[in-house]
Amino acid sequence: MTALPPPQWVLGLNNTSSSKPKSSSIPDPPGFTATLSTKQRSQSKNAPQTAVRKPPTTEETDTLKLKKAWEIAIAPAKQLPMNAIGMYMTGSTLQIFSIFMVFTLFKTPLTAIATLGRTFAPYTTPGTATRLLPAKFVFVLMNLLMLGLGLWKVNQMGLLPTTRSDWLAWETDRTWAGRAVPREWL
Amino acid sequence: MRLHALLASAAFLVAGTVAIFADDAYHIDYHHALLGFPKHDATFFQQPYAGSKASLIYTLSDKLVVGAVNPKDGSLVWRQTLSPSPNITDGFLRAGEEQDTVLSAVGGEITAWSASDGRFAWRTAFPDATVKDLEILELEDAKSERDTKDAVILLSDGTHGVKRLDGRTGAVKWTYPDNSGDSPFQISISATSIYYISLHSTMLGGLKIKVTSLNPLTGQKLDQYTLNSDGEAVPGSVLFAGANSASPILAWTDKSHKVLKINIIGSKSTSTFNVPGAGSEEVQKIVLHAPHRINSLSHFLVHYQTANAHSAEVFHADLKTHAISKAYSLPELAGKGAFTTSTTDANVYFTRITSNEVIVVSSVSHGILGRWPVKGVASSNELYPIHGVSEVVVRSGSAHAVRSALLLSDGQWALIRNGEFVWTRPELLAGAVTAVWAELPEEETLAQELAIEGHENIIAAYIHRVRRHIRDLEHFPAWLQSLPVRILANFAGKSSSTSATEIQQDTFGFHKLVIVATDNGHLVGLNVGNAGRVVWNIDLAQLAPGIKFDNPKLSISRGYFEVRQKGLETPLFINSTTGSALTAEKVKAESDQLPKAQTLISYDLVDGELSGFLGDQEASSPIWKFVPPSGERIVGVSARPARDPVASIGKVLGDRRVLYKYLNPNLVLVTTVLDARRRASIYLLDSASGNLLYAAVHNNIDISRTIPSALSENWLSYSLTLDSSVENSSRGYQLVVAELFESSIPNDRGPLGAETNSSSIQPSAASDDAAKPYVISQTYHIPEEISHMTVTQTRQGITSRELLVTLPESNSIVGIPRHVIDPRRPVGRDPTAAEASEGLTKYSPVIQFDPKWYLNHKMELFGIKSIITSPALLESTSLVFAYGLDIFGTRVAPSFAFDMLGKGFNKLQMLATVAALGVGVLFVAPLVRRKQINSLWQIP
Lengths: 186, 940
Known about the structure:
The structure holds two protein chains of two kinds. By secondary structure, chain A is mainly alpha-helical. Chain A has helices spanning 8-14, 38-46, 58-90, 96-114, 116-120, 133-156; strands spanning 175-176, 178-182. The radius of gyration of chain A is 31 Å and the shape is elongated. Chain B is mostly beta strands. Among the domains of chain B are: 2-29 and 665-751 and 770-892, no CATH class; 440-557 and 559-591, Thrombin, subunit H (Beta Barrel), CATH 2.40.10; 908-940. In chain B, helix 2 (441-455) packs antiparallel against helix 3. Chain B starts with a helix and ends with a helix. In chain B, 41% of the residues are buried. Classes of the chains: A mainly alpha, B mainly beta. Chains A and B meet through strand 1 and strand 2 of A and helix 1, strand 42 and strand 54 of B. Strand 1 of chain A pairs parallel with strand 54 (757-758) of chain B, so a sheet runs across the interface. Chain B: Its main location: endoplasmic reticulum. Chain B: Residues 712-937 form the ER membrane protein complex subunit 1 C-terminal domain.
């Protein structure tokens, strides 16, 4: 039994994007608003609704994308003072709260650096690829700063084996060449 | 604050709260409150006060302890130690009928104690004399009050004479001085007069017995005569001078125990009897037993003891005719036996106790009133009674019941009621001179197997271990069978009960043996896991006849131990679990205590100098010698324990730097005194090289007091008594603690640097002070004198240590936590944050013993000589055993029992919680499942 082709209404339901042919000069019926993407909607709020929108040029989108990328690159630095104050306030004692905070302090920058490519993927175009590098670098730097804050905190808590006492367990006692005992022990 | 600092402060807080929990008291600790061997003539049944229904057993022991024991269960009602000068061993204990005091006389001191609770009543002392005899004046006279009876004492050594003391105050009423130069022997009191018996030495070496009768009211001499005993009586042959009896008698024998001569005191005639020539056997001992009551019949029993048998004869004395006649004789029985005398009204009963039976006869006729076979633990032929006292209940002509408190030949004091052992008290332990820990055999075999595995290569060790585990499977069914019982016992909160003879290993290593050597040559094995009960008890004199084991040296090896004693050529080998002797061939000559790779040096105190010898040969010339500076006398030498594990080789400071401990296994602490200048000095030596590492001098010290010292890990402590006779800024007792570090600078390992091995002879290139450890010390005032100190031991040395000190004044043992006596406590200022995080508190010159530190809580520990400690399998716990007069044992957890659930942990509640949660889950699971399905079917 051969599968019947789906009926036309199913096709129409599934294929909403092509509902409005781009080349059509026929205006929309009054009262009909085309479904807009969120970006378009936000643009439409800022800019006065023009009857015909001029599509932005490649340079313009690139500049916009670069601007956006820099924003993302700087974003971790904005959290830095808040985190620093939080870390300072929690003190150096081991508490479940501060342990969670420190854990996030380590996790966030590391995952951010690991997913660097994905974070900047929307802004990578052939035109912006090289110009994004400083932004990426700053992004990594900011995350490293965050990581540094975490390290500082861990050190404050005494969890970093930086002192002699941390390696004391691996140091051994001397062996003495002679062993002297009282006569009555023999 | 930092992590380790947090841990340190946590440990500090925990350590500060360590005490004995109320529910642990009497469970983890045990105490044998002992008296010593009761003296035959100073032991009696007596009502504690007139009209009392029950009687107590009063005794004065050979350790000069007066005590009252409840005859029902053998528990101690009260006791008092008499502390005369050390060479006095003789004493007297008397109690008048229907009196509420008992009188003791030791040395020149007569003391009256309240009979019911042992409170002190009065004391009269004659400092330059020795009390030779003490009797209670039973007769009623006008001068004495109705309820207090006076005492009559006989003094010798210095001033000879008889004195009558007031029974209420101890004041002297009259004195009869004796300036004749005869040696006073005894006093005896009849209904009318006091007889003072003295021995007059003749030119030929014999003795003449002189009897002086005195007026009890005035002390005036009434009569004096000398008995014609010349040639027969020799020193020590006078057997008996009947005391307080209606017919006081005097009996003596000749040297060879062939003839017995008896005199009724007051008459000059003597009756002579031939000692029954029991076959060819020589009579070794003749003992005369007579009633001590003034209104009892004048009958007495003479006990003849030969090497293998004993017999007795009963004599009657006729007061009117002064004649003594033999009434009947008791048949000879094999073995050794004891006779006791008891009186009811005027009747006199003799109780004969042998290894097998108890026989009661009346003094009137030889008919047996009662006979009981001896049942129980002691029915072996080896065991026999030495002496005892009895109480007999006679109804309608037959003995209804008899109870006898007997000193047995194995050193136990037992009460036999109608032939059955009611209680035994291990009084021989009161003479403990030395004690050692012994491992249980299972533990030792395991340690041996592990040692084998440790020495093999990995594959061979693995095969060995698998084989061992397969071999262990044979115990699996038994283990499985015992499992339900154990679990039930666990929930019931009871430890599985073990009998006295059975010793088994426990999971925590609390079950160990302590082997105690006593001053009478016995060795006793005690199971400390089972309230210190006697497991075995052997007489060393039987293993090596002719040698007096008064201070044997015990050294423990695997499963057996060696006994060495001066005069003994080859050491004795004894199995530590059974107490049976082993032959030297059976014992593998191996000493695994000391590693063989190292050069062995032994040191000993020879002629007041401490000398070190290469190897263990005594003949070799010393390789080093420590001679104390001029005039100083070595009073004590203490070494680090043979097994003294140290978990951490450094001390972590508050800023996370490390002060490295000076850990030298060869440390030895020598205490010396300079008598002339009241100076005590402490010398810390490296005993491998004899190098002096540290010295301290203390002036104005009372050097007649002991200077106890202890050495552990990298610290030492000692205690001093300040001389009160000179101008001191302070008086009292001091505890000095010193700690040794490799360098004063943190993170620095001193002149040796990071070298992993070291020689004591030339430890480093540095010379003089640079090569010596850095020592800091602090001194504390303590409220009491310390007679002995030792340090707790744990398995790995992770747990902080505790200094155990014996306080003879308050009869207790105190465990001082290490952090309290840390020499790094800041002086004169509050600790900085870093120091506080280490747990250091500001130095205070006085340490008050916290009541929580007392290990003995309500118990009174008399005469503790020494404390030994041993690690348990649990790291937190150290086993403690103290001996001396008393035996005391407990276990301490200086850093809290962090690896064991406390008694307060409710296992049932935990199980109930788990069960309740399980049931809850069963109920809630369907609900949750339904909710999840519903949520899937709902439009969000």
